[in-house]
Design brief:
It contains four helices and four strands. Helix 2 links the parallel strand 3 and strand 4. Helix 2 packs across helix 4.
């Protein structure tokens, strides 16, 4: 139920570039979210953490946090779009709850929650 399968993750450079180039951007202090409203992505998500965030350990922690936040909230989101989550410097030292609040705020702003969810 709350799994994040490999088939749900954007993997190819072509898909990343399509979402990055044609997507709408939303950001806050912790995350940047790029969303493209196309059926072909069917709820796929990609995660990115640039080298400015620090060493590989820090970047992997940021991606792990973003994956877990997405995994726990994915059932509340619409499936007709693809997204990329990019971590910011705040996320390197942030607690899980802070990242989750930032993610939920971005999803509300992007209107990604299903209509029947009042979250």
């Amino acid at each position: 139920m709350f799994e994040l399968k490999k088939s749900e993750i954007l993997r190819s450079k072509q898909d990343f570039n399509a979402v990055h180039g044609g997507g709408q951007s939303y950001n806050n202090h912790a995350l940047v979210m790029l969303v493209v409203e196309e059926e072909k992505y069917n709820g796929k998500v990609g995660f990115a953490a640039g080298k400015k965030l620090g060493c590989a350990v820090a970047r992997n922690r940021v991606k792990r946090l973003m994956r877990e936040v997405y995994r726990l909230n994915k059932n509340s989101l619409r499936r007709n779009c693809g997204m990329i989550l990019v971590g910011r410097k705040f996320t390197v030292t942030a607690k899980f709850k802070d990242v989750e609040k930032a993610f939920i705020a971005l999803c509300r702003r992007a209107k990604l929650f299903k209509e029947d969810d009042s979250q």
